[in-house]
Every structure is written in C-alpha cells, then in structure tokens.
Design goal:
The chain has 41 helices and 50 strands. 46% of the residues are buried. It folds into six domains: 314 residues, no CATH class; 233 residues, no CATH class; 203 residues, P-loop containing nucleotide triphosphate hydrolases (Rossmann fold, 3-Layer(aba) Sandwich), CATH 3.40.50.300; 94 residues, no CATH class; 174 residues, no CATH class; 122 residues, Trna Endonuclease, Chain: A, domain 1. Strands 1, 4, 5, 6, 9, 10, 11 and 12 form an eight-stranded mixed sheet that branches. By secondary structure, it is α/β, with parallel strands linked by helices. Helix 23 packs across helix 30 and helix 25 crosses helix 26. Strand 17, helix 28 and strand 18 form a beta-alpha-beta unit.
C-alpha cells in the first residue's frame, strides 16, 4: 500500500499485551502470573488459564489453533520469527444468522515479525463523522445493514475499505516508524501507556475480505492489516526496550526498580496510543525516541540488556530523519482550519507538497488568498471563500498580529480543537482573560500555559520543538523566534513544568538547585544547560506565574503562583481563627461523657478513667477554639466526641457543616451524629455546588464570588487526605465560620497531590512538650491517645499497627514481634508467611476459606452469603435491596495494582473462582444482563466507584437521593434480575448497584459506561489498593505485603493495618522482622515532601533521602531517632566519648529485643543497655514494659542500681511530666558507666 500524497505522513502505534517471553511466538512462561494482559477485554474474557499453564513456554509452531492463547489476536506474537496462520471467525455469525450466517471462517496468515493492526476508532460509527467530513470520503451510512441489535461498528465492505485505506495511506514504507506499546505492564502502577519497542514499517499487506458460503449477501472486510516491521533480536534496525532483562536483574538486585527504565507515553499523547492502532505524529515520535535514549542509557549503567550503543545510534539517526520529515510548519492544517477554512488539512498538504526542504509556505498562502486557482487544485479552490479572502486582506491591512499568530500556531503539531482555542479570541477568553495575540507572539510558551487549563492540554515539549527548530531558514513570525536555548521564556515554561510534576509528587515548591539539575537532565530536542545565574536573570519573566521563595538555609526556591495563593488562604485563615477571641462554652463535658458511656466503667478501669479525663478536656478545646485539630487513631472516640459536640444547642443552632474527601467518611459521620441542622457532603460535591470543583479536570478552584455563609461550625474529616488545593478551596468558599475542626489520623497516608496541610497545621499548633503532657491538649490542638476498652492497646493488631505510626515505640513494644513470631494467629491478627506465587495463592485461598466460613474454595453459596446475599433454606442466593449493608464485612487490601498479588489479578482470581457460574448464566440466559466491561461484572459482584460523578436522575431509583457518587464508594450489584413484573423484551441491559453509603438506592450502569479505552468508573472491589481503602473501615481485612515492593512506606503499612474492626490477616512475603525497618522516619512518605505552608522548609539528606528536619529528630551525625528524649540521650553519650548503637538487635535464647541504646565500654569490659520509658501513661504499655524488665533480669541484665549482670547492665530513664528528660540526670548516669 502506497502513501497518499494528499495526507500528512504519520507513524503508527500498535497495542500489544504484556508477554513474559518477549512476544516471540510462544505462550507465556508463567501465564497465571501475567495479570497485566487482562487489561485487554479479549484477554480478560477469553483467556484459558488451564490450557496456557499446560502449554507454558511452548511455541505456536508446535501447537494446534485450539491451543493458541487468546492474546494471539491481540498482537502478542509480533516478534515471532516464523509464519503461522489462524482461522478468523466473524463475531456475528451465530448471533445474527440473517445478515452474517453466510460468513465462513477465514484463514489469514501471520507473517514473521508482523502484527495485525486494527484502527478501531476509524471503524466506529459515532466517531468517524469528523474524519469522513475532513477527508471527504466515500462513506455511506445507507450501506450499513439493519441488524436485530444495536452496534457502533461498521459492517459493510465498501465502508470498511474506505476507512481502512484512508487510515493506512498516511503511512510510508521505510519512512514511517511503528511504536509497540502496552496498556499495562507488571512493574508500572500508573495507567499510562508503556512503550515496549520501536522499528520501521517494512510492509503493509493489502486488506482481506471474508470468505462466504454463498454470494449475494453482506460483504465485509477482515479488519486486521498485517504490518511488517524491522525489529529483530540483534536490534540493528529497531529495538525492544530491555524490560524483561530488567525484571531478571531485579531478582538479584532487590533495590533496583525496573520502572526506572520505563518509557511512558505522555498524557497529552494518549489518544495517539489508544484504540489498538493509531496514527503517531512526527513530534510524538521524536519525543518518545528521546525518552528511549534515556532508558537505554540507564540500562547501560546497570548492564541490563545489550547493544546499547548501536540502539542509541539508531535512535539518533531516526530522530534526525524525522525532523526533516516534520518540516517547519506541521500544524499548518490545524491553523488554517482554526482560521475558518473547511478542509484546512487538505489545503495545507497541497501547499506543503509544492515546497522544497526548509521553504516557507506563507508566500504561497498569501497568493492563495489573492488568487486561489494559482495555488490549489480545482477541488480545493472552493474552500477559499470570498469571505475569508476579505478577512485575510483585512488582517493584512490592520491586524497583522492575527496573521502572525496563525503562522505561530502552524509551527506546532497540535489538533484543530487546540488551534481553535488559541486562535479564536472569543474561545480563548473563556479559558484565560486578558492575554492578547501580542503577548502570545512575544512569548509563545504561553500556549503551553493557556492550554494547560483545559481538557485539550498541550505539553511543553510540543511547543518547545516548534520553537527550538533547527531549520536553516528564518521561521515566521520572526517576532516569536527563540534562538537561545536558555532564553528566560523557555526557563519559565520549563520551571512551570517541573513544579507541576513536583506538585503531583506532593511537593509545593522546589529549590533552585533541584530545578537546575532536573532541567539539565531533561531529554529535549535542544538541551537546556541552565544554571543558577541564568535562573536569577530569568526571574523577571516569572512574575505572576512563579513566585520566589527561600529554603530555611536561605537558598532560593520557586513555587507556582496558584500554590502560593492557596497557601496564603490557608495561612491567613488559620492565623485569623487562632488570633480571634475564643468561645466560652459553659458545659460540663464530663457529665455528658458519663451519660454517653456507662459510669461504672471508670470504677475498676484506670485506662477508661484516663480516657474520660482526656475526652472532657478535648471537648472543651473543640468547643472553645475557633480552629482546632482533633487527632486520634481508630477506636479513640473521635466520632463519638463530635456527636456530643454537635448535639449541643449552642453549637447546633449556628449550623454545622460536615465535609469529607470520601463518600464513606461522609456517610459514617452523618450516621453517627444524627443531629438536626447538620449537613454532610463530600468535599468535591460541596465545592462543585459553589463552582470551585471542575469535574472534567478534577481540579479545585479559587473564586472571589459564590461563598457559603450558612454554617458557623465546619468539621472536615479524614483531613490527612487533603491537598493544599482542596483545603485552600474549602476555606476560600466558607464565610462566617467561627469554629473549624480538622479531624483525622495524621499518621495515615499523605494526600495524593500537593503538600501535607493537615500535618503542617498540626505542627504549627502542637505544643513543644507534647510528649510529656497528659492530656495532649493545648490551644487549637487536641489529641486522643487512649482507646476505649474494646479497642484497647492490649489488642495485638492495634499494637502491631502502632509500630508503624511514627510515634515513639515504647520500650516494651518489641514484645509484639516476639508474641506474633511465637503465635502468629492471635484473636485480632493472624500473620501468614508466603514465599512465591504458588505459595501466595494457596495461603490466600486457605485464609479466605477459614475466615469466610466456606466449606472449600468451591463453596460459591457461602461466599455469596458473605457478600450480603440472602437464601431461603439453602437455595439460590439473591442480592436484594439492603445487601450493601454487609458488603464491607471483609476486604482484601494490597499496595499494588499489578503482579499476581495486585488488585487486578486478585479480583480476577476471586471472580473466576466464585462467580464463574453467574458469568456463564449471564451469557447464556436472558434473566441477567451480559457481563459488563473487561472485568465481566455481573449480578452479585462487589464493586467500587472510582471517580466523582453526578448521575442522570433517571439512572437512580428512587429519584429523591443524591444522584451523586463519590470516589471510593463500595457497593454490590443487585440487579437487574428479570422477573415476571418486568415488561421489556429481551434480556436486561443495565446492572443496578446499591452502595453501602446510599442504602436503598439503585444506580444503573450499562455497557456504554465500560469502554475499553476509557477509564471506567466501576471496578471489581474484592481487592482494593491500600490507597483506595483510606477513609473506609471493614470488619475483617486480608492485608498483602510483598517483598520487595517499591511503594511501601511507613504510612502505607500503618493505613493498611488500621482498616479492620475485628481482625486483620497479614499475608507477608519472606521475613517479618524486615518489616520493622519501615517504622523508621526514613521510610516516611509524608516527611519527604517539601512544603512551606507556615515556615520555610529544611530538607535534610539522610541515606540518600531528603526529610523535613523540622519534623524529625536527627543527630549531629545524621542518625534518626523516634523521640526528642532519645536524641538528647544519644548526643550526651557522644559528648562523653561513648559510642551508642540505636535499637541494636539483642537475641537471647531465640528471643529478640531492641534496647533503645547498646553501649559497649571496652575499658571496663562491660556492656550497657539503655531503655528510655517516657511517661508510660497507658496501663497496657506499662504492663508490657514490666514484662520486658522481668526478661532482662531473668537473662542476667540487671538494672544499674541492682548490681552488674553477667550479660550486661540495664539503665532506665523516664520523662517527667511537662518537662521531659533531665540532662543532669543523664550526665550523672554517664559518669557512672564511663
């Protein structure tokens, strides 16, 4: 097939499933462990695990077609070095015999080193209108047959041919590249496409028609066109990225993350890598090739893969070649269309075809508007209408900036929609006010900033390649030319890009030094070798977009102006409320607490007595303070206290607003308080009402209008999940608030996005002597530390979780590890060790059977009952309204989405194991809708909504509810189940979901809600990521902790271990004691964020990580400690010449303890163990310390005042109330041992 000269040259993207044997024409070596390929609907629905496992590693050359894996049809054999064939069956032969019954199974050849390319988007009726009009194609909807069902796919031969030919005629043999990509790979957690290989297109086979049993009926083309490519194992003319080698390397090098080599398709290029096969522009090709250079160079550093130098040489050669193919004005068609010319792309191509290399098209365009016939062929002349000729003349005379802007836009390979937003001033003003044509011409990088605020975002890269063009001629408009690689306008745009990237990682600012390093390391078409001086010179161009700030050490840093704005809102509101006159609520809170709880509980329970004392003081602070933080782990009574507070007339009458980031947290609080005059919303739901939440961009806005003035008291739950933008938007929206309470457990995961505002506000309000006071309450600060009896610290699950809380570990707490190692199955926690994939699944199945009270792994009946189903006399299980009440009785939690232990594979495992009968029934019977989406969601499935969304009122029953679903709401499919009362014909078309947060309401979804290319909002939820579980609580949890796992953090483990009410089953890989390292600040995600909400940051480098010095206890020699007292002890020991070792393992008779300090005094031949006990206010902590003290004595480690033990001497110190540790006391002890 030849390229059509009227079409711009394009490259090709081809989607392939992940394959663990390099797509070489074999079945995967470990098929059951390949969960990544299940992102593709065909693989998810039709993969036959038993057959693939039986033939694992076998070549298709040696197998009959009935043994072929389903992924063959998904292009999983593009690197096979042999030819094979396959029978193609038309999907409608059996379902539509009237129109398709005459189609025969047709044999097609899969040549070696080729892939069957199918551009699905070009074959969808509802998507091709624009293409048909743009290319003036001979497409006729009337040719399409009438079927007995609705379909969006083209059916007729001539329509197929015109669409497929048009698509492939953009490609040129040996000039166009082919980019192979996967939607999902096992080592990447994000949903970005991952490039796997690049080569040249060597050949495109002609299209084939189906064979028929008889002639005269409907004709149809086989959609697949075989694309031959140049990639070979020797990497001479193309390459595969060395991902498989990286995975093998990581087995022996567990600190290496294969994701470091991944080439991710940028979000703004996503459409070019969608729908299985699509066109790729020259700019995208160049950008991805440069990223491939980066990947190959990293691989070379680690000696992963081979032929590194020859691959990079090939890439650079291709980049140079594509730069010439690109030309200087790749966006000319979009520009002319934005100007108003119909068929602007054809007009542009006709002009470009008349030019030589580096020639300027604008002289021809000028002539075209004056005498079109001299420039364009007859079929295009009509599109240069008289009106637009007049417009051009007007612009030439009075508005030359309009023509200059058109010339500028044409230099960028952007879409028609993007070009219109930029060129049509009325549309541009809808995005950003008061940016003129002149301003854009003076700084073309403004295009990146403007479109970044829309759904039609354009990357910095796209603009940069149009400006940093290596053309020998002078490009138009000359006013916009940038010849300096370190031009301040370029530095500004690059700084915005890097600050935006940093924001996604949680940072609200970046130091100049970091920005310099990052920008210098970027793979750009022209490197930007910026330094600190150039940054300083560029700062005058930053005004209004990037703000100058400082680190605490005085080093310069930068922050996006929008982050500065929300920070100022937060800072000013906190300061204003703190400085305001406090309320004086005259209520006896102790009496109210005694009414709420049994007064007799305090008589014989010292902990409960302290808990009441603590709660009374906390309630008073919450009531009297205009701003406060309420901290506490699960079971400390936060919700109960808020219920008591909001029930008081003096507070209730002013109006109470409750906000939460998740629907679950909103409902939990609403159900717990049951207070009149309290309103509860998710944050997105509330801000959307006041125009501060953009549901399309999922972003939070700041406005100077539409304020909420209804509520005097505002309570925000799960505040650890708030980004700075979220909190700033909330505070910007509220007026008249005189009591703001931020509630949460700051030890959980930090927010997904900018900053850690909850932690920063806590740090501002927290008194310096917090560790030494009880109750832990001061102005604006209230912390609940004592759990009620049924959730007390004597529970092993709570004590185990506390090890990862970031709090000081009490000296007796290492007993938890000891007890769990001796007896891993305790009442509230069961630790289960696994070694490999097979071991993992066996262990998980066993624990599911045991804890869900199943008779076996085939017990589907009792499994359905565990989800909330109901059955009469052991008969069929039905899921009726109200089933959602039990849907959160149990939950599997895992840190990752990928791998065998990720959510995708786990959900499929559970689904296939327990829902196979329902899936088959849904396909073969007409009482249920067909399974929905790639996960085949069916009646009785547990699901989660993963996006904030308003639902059309007719999709919700009854219709008096919220008609709104928040991200994270969990539910169960309770319909449709067709019965005698239904009057519609055929099978049901919708599934109906009842969510636990909206019991009694059914939300309907159909197949249109489950597109393969789009991110569906409903997913299976038997297994959730730990991140997704935040804000939820379950009866029983199964927590999976693989090793290694690069996203594990202290907060992630703590969050996972605090989701259960009754019991947690922890399935951990390899070594339990190795988990203990995650209790250190070194593994804190929160502490690694760079923020400046209340004070300039002080990042301190410790073991290659940067932690906020103001939030850690670090010694002069860069060692981390869990408390200030421990740091003081360590520094004093060092001061006197001793060499203490912190938390060194001490094992005697197979029992391991971790003394705070181990000190060997060689001059005396003695060893000392120093334990600092804090205050030991909690009776359980005190009890465990006393048990540890007995162990020391039993093993001849005696307290220093009792003599010298044969195994060492024990030093015990305590904090004094309100003051902490005594330095003179420490020095006295040191003198005794020195």
């Amino acid at each position: 097939m030849k390229k059509n000269p009227n079409y711009p040259l394009r490259h090709l993207s081809i989607r392939v499933p992940w394959h663990d044997n390099k797509w070489n024409g074999t079945i995967c070596q470990n098929p059951s462990n390949n969960g990544a390929c299940l992102i593709l609907k065909n693989c998810a629905e039709k993969r036959k695990d038993d057959i693939e496992v039986q033939n694992a590693g076998q070549s298709l050359e040696n197998l009959s077609q009935d043994k072929y894996p389903v992924c063959v049809g998904e292009r999983a054999t593009f690197m096979a070095d042999f030819n094979f064939d396959k029978l193609i069956k038309h999907p409608y032969v059996e379902t539509s015999p009237d129109t398709h019954g005459h189609f025969k199974d047709t044999r097609i050849l899969f040549p070696k080193y080729s892939a069957p390319a199918v551009p699905y988007l070009w074959l969808m009726k509802n998507e091709i209108e624009t293409v048909v009009k743009q290319y003036d194609l001979d497409y006729n909807q009337a040719r399409e047959p009438k079927l007995n069902f609705n379909t969006n796919w083209l059916q007729q031969f001539d329509n197929h041919k015109v669409m497929l030919d048009t698509f492939f005629e953009h490609l040129e043999i040996n000039n166009s590249l082919v980019f192979f990509y996967a939607k999902r790979v096992p080592f990447i957690e994000s949903s970005q496409r991952v490039l796997v290989g690049v080569g040249k297109i060597n050949q495109i086979d002609d299209g084939l028609e189906y064979d028929y049993r008889s002639k005269g009926g409907l004709r149809s083309m086989i959609w697949e066109r075989m694309v031959h490519h140049s990639i070979r194992p020797n990497n001479e003319d193309g390459f595969l990225l060395p991902y498989h080698d990286a995975l093998i390397y990581s087995l022996d090098n567990p600190d290496f993350d294969p994701a470091e080599l991944a080439v991710l398709v940028p979000d703004d290029k996503r459409l070019e890598f969608s729908f299985a096969t699509e066109h790729v522009t020259n700019d995208s090709a160049i950008q991805l090739l440069l990223e491939c250079v980066n990947s190959i160079e990293k691989a070379k550093e680690f000696n992963i893969g081979s032929n590194h130098d020859s691959i990079t040489a090939w890439i650079h050669k291709e980049i140079n070649r594509i730069e010439k193919l690109r030309g200087n004005y790749p966006g000319l068609g979009s520009a002319l269309t934005a100007f108003g010319i119909d068929k602007g792309h054809f007009v542009a191509q006709a002009i470009l075809n008349q030019l030589g290399e580096d020639e300027n098209p604008w002289d021809l365009i000028e002539l075209m508007f004056n005498e079109p016939t001299k420039v364009l062929p007859k079929n295009l002349v009509e599109f240069i209408t008289l009106t637009y000729q007049k417009v051009w003349k007007l612009y030439n005379k009075n508005k030359k900036d309009r023509i200059a802007l058109l010339q500028l836009i044409s230099r960028f390979e952007i879409s028609i929609e993007q070009a219109k937003l930029l060129y049509v001033s009325e549309e541009r003003e809808q995005i950003v006010e008061s940016i003129s044509d002149k301003e854009i011409l003076a700084n073309p990088y403004l295009i990146y900033e403007i479109l970044n605020k829309t759904q039609f975002r354009v990357s910095f890269w796209t603009i940069d390649i149009g400006l940093m063009n290596k053309s020998k001629s002078i490009l138009l408009p000359e006013i916009s030319n940038i010849n300096d690689s370190v031009d301040s306008r370029r530095i500004r745009a690059l700084t915005i890009q890097q600050l935006e990237f940093g924001s996604l990682q949680g940072h609200s600012l970046k130091s100049r030094d970091d920005l310099v390093r990052e920008i210098r390391n970027l793979k750009l078409i022209v490197p930007c070798n910026v330094d600190g001086t150039i940054f300083e010179i560029s700062e005058e161009d930053f005004i209004g977009v990037i703000d100058n700030t400082l680190l605490k050490n005085g080093k310069p840093a930068y922050q996006l102006n929008r982050i500065t704005e929300v920070d100022e809102i937060i800072r000013n509101k906190v300061t204003e409320l703190l400085s305001g006159e406090r309320h004086n609520i005259n209520i006896n809170w102790k009496v109210l607490l005694d009414k709420e709880f049994d007064i007799n509980d305090v008589i014989n329970d010292e902990n409960e007595k302290k808990a009441r004392e603590e709660k009374a003081v906390v309630l008073k602070e919450l009531a009297d303070s205009r701003i406060s933080v309420l901290l506490g782990a699960a079971g400390t009574g936060k919700t109960t206290l808020l219920n008591i507070l909001c029930n008081q007339d003096i507070i209730r009458k002013g109006g109470v607003l409750f906000l939460a980031p998740t629907g679950k947290a909103r409902v939990r609080m609403q159900q717990a308080t049951k207070v009149a005059n309290i309103r509860a919303f998710t944050i997105a739901q509330f801000l959307y009402k006041f125009k501060r939440y953009n549901i399309n961009l999922q972003s939070y806005e700041i406005l100077n209008e539409d304020f909420c003035q209804e509520f005097e008291t505002v309570i925000v739950d799960e505040s650890s999940m708030l980004t700075e933008e979220m909190l700033g938007s909330i505070l910007n929206c509220l007026e008249g608030v005189n009591r703001l309470i931020l509630v949460g457990d700051h030890r959980q995961l930090p927010p997904i996005g900018t900053g850690r505002p909850f932690v920063d506000i806590i740090n501002k309000l927290k008194p310096e002597n917090t560790d030494y006071i009880f109750p832990k309450v001061s102005k604006g600060y209230a912390e609940l530390t004592i759990r009620r009896r049924h959730k007390g610290t004597n529970r092993h699950d709570i004590a185990f979780a506390e090890l990862f809380s970031g709090n000081r570990i009490e000296p007796g707490e290492d007993k938890i590890f000891e007890e769990l190692l001796i007896n891993p199955n305790q009442k509230h926690i069961h630790l289960v060790k696994w070694k490999n994939e097979v071991d993992f699944l066996t262990s998980l199945n066993d624990k599911i059977i045991e804890n869900l009270n199943l008779n076996s792994i085939e017990d589907k009946h009792n499994f359905d009952l565990s989800l909330g189903g109901s059955s009469v006399n052991g008969g069929l299980v039905y899921f009726n309204k109200g089933a959602a009440e039990k849907i959160e009785n149990w939950q599997i939690l895992t840190p990752v989405r990928e791998r065998l232990w990720g959510t995708k594979s786990l959900n499929r495992h559970i689904h296939k194991t327990f829902k196979s009968d329902t899936i088959e029934y849904s396909y073969t019977k007409f009482k249920l809708p067909k399974p929905m989406g790639i996960e085949q969601i069916v009646y009785g499935d547990k699901v989660i909504n993963v996006a904030n969304q308003s639902r059309y009122i007719k999709t919700v029953y009854p219709q008096d509810g919220d008609n709104y679903l928040a991200n994270g709401e969990i539910g169960i499919v309770i319909g449709q189940f067709k019965n005698k009362f239904h009057t519609f014909s055929g099978r049901p078309q919708n599934i109906e979901i009842e969510f636990s947060t909206q019991r009694g309401y059914k939300y309907s979804f159909n197949h249109r809600d489950f597109g393969e290319e789009s991110e569906t909002s409903i997913e299976l939820a038997y297994a959730l990521t730990i991140h997704k579980s935040q804000g939820s609580e379950f009866g029983l949890t199964f927590v999976i902790i693989p090793n290694p796992c690069f996203i594990l953090s202290r907060e992630l483990i703590y969050t996972a271990l605090t989701r259960q009410k009754d019991k947690v089953i922890v399935l951990y890989q390899d070594d339990l004691l190795s988990l203990r390292r995650y209790s250190s600040d070194l593994y804190s995600e929160t502490l690694q964020r760079l923020t400046n909400l209340f004070e300039a940051p002080t990042p301190r480098e410790i073991q290659g990580k940067f932690l906020e010095e103001g939030l850690i206890h670090v010694s002069s020699d860069n060692k981390l400690f869990r408390s200030k007292s421990e740091l003081i002890i360590y520094e004093q020991l060092k001061k006197f010449g001793l060499k203490p070792i912190y938390e060194k393992e001490l094992t005697i008779d197979n029992v391991t303890k971790y003394p705070d300090f181990t000190i060997e005094v060689s001059s005396k031949g003695r060893i000392y163990y120093w334990e600092h006990c804090g205050l030991l206010l909690d009776s359980e902590y005190k009890k465990r310390w006393e048990e540890k003290l007995v162990w020391y004595k039993k093993n001849e480690i005696l307290p220093i005042d009792e003599g010298v033990g044969s195994n060492g001497t024990l030093i015990i110190t305590n904090d004094s109330k309100n003051k902490g540790i005594s330095i003179p006391e420490i020095e006295t002890i040191i003198q005794l041992i020195k």
